[in-house]
Amino acid sequence: MKSPERNNSDTHAYLVLKLAQELFRKSPTALTAEERARVDQVARRQREIERRILATPEAAGVHLPSASVDTALADIRSRYASREELAAALDAAGLDLISLRASIERDLRFEAVLERVSARTPTPSDIDAEIFYLMHRDRFHRPENRTLRHILITIDDTAPGSERTAAYRTIAAIRARVIATPSRFADEALRYSQCPSAVEGGLLGTVRRGQLFAELEPTAFALPLGEVSDIVESPMGFHILHCVAIEDDSVIPFVAVREKIRTALAESQRARAQKAWIRQLFADDQTSARAA
Predict the structure, then answer these.
(1) Rounded CA gap, 94 and 122, in Å?
(2) Which of 85, 230, 251, 255 suits 214 as a labelling partner, its CA being 20 to 30 A distant?
């Protein structure tokens, strides 16, 4: 049996391995001195919280299926290109597969206890969700958006055929063709537009105010559905726009977001319940220390 000191060392090493990935997307050996100090600080704090939680009566009743540990271990293995790379990372962290598995099991027990504690919280009702919706109507405001295609002809006075006058003649000729036959817009964009969107027939996608060049926005949001704009100049060059679809400014109805609100409320309540329970554990320890 390992000594408490060795168990603490393994737990800390595992938390460092885990937190280095979660906080910085790095292995522990790739951390800077500042990053490593941050990881060590968080690991020490989390190790102390785990120690207190796993000593509670709630933890005593938690039993993990071995399949859960196997799945978590397989997930960690999948982050490495080979078993040798994993072994090297574990060796650098001061772990091996046995201590890694034990640390994973401890971590999963810790999470299971917190889930058990949070399960005591009541499930938010439809009324709770509706109250939240009515109190935060601004969060469910959906601004006007438009689906647009565009054609861009750039201006380059140093390149023959792309000077301002030539570029304008080109865009004007394209516009004349698509005004006559708007269904040609995507084909014209594919053939002539000098924007990467040309491969998608000039499709810019669905945009809201503030997402386009300032020079384009007034024209884009004044275009009637199905119409092609006048020629507009931006720092990129000359554009014409085609309005494909319009979704008016609106408020998302409650029925469309009810379940999402209930889920968010439940997650928030569970998190608050877990934090309150952990704070109480520390408060009880301080009370016991003062009494002693």
Answers:
(1) 43
(2) 251
Phi, psi torsion values for 37, nearest 5 degrees: -65, -40
Q: How far apart, in whole angstroms, are the C-alpha atoms of residue 52 and residue 281?
A: 7
pLDDT in tens, 225-244: 999 999 999 988 999 999 99
Show the tokens assigned to 17. 């391995």
- Give the span between the Cα atoms of 227 and 241, in whole angstroms: 8
What is the H or E stretch that residue 7 is in? helix 4-24
Separation CA 192–CA 172 (nearest Å) = 12
Gap between the Cα atoms of 249 and 18, Å rounded: 44
Question: What does DSSP assign to residue 138?
Answer: G
Q: For residue 279, give Cα distances in angstroms to 49, 55, 137, 273, 286.
A: 10, 15, 33, 10, 11
Most distant pair of Cα atoms in the chain: their distance = 91
Distance CA 22, CA 44 (A): 16
- Burial pattern 260-277, b for ≥16 Cβ within 10 A else e, equals ebbeebbeebbeebbeeb
Question: Tokens 């409650």 correspond to what residue?
Answer: 254
Backbone angles phi, psi at 68, to 5 degrees: -65, -40
Give the separation between CA 189 and CA 241, rounded to whole angstroms.
10
- Predicted model pTM: 0.59
CB 51 within 8 Å of CB 78? no
| Gap between the Cα atoms of 26 and 276, Å rounded | 32
pLDDT in tens, 87-114: 888 888 888 888 888 889 999 999 999 9
CA 115 to chain centre: 23
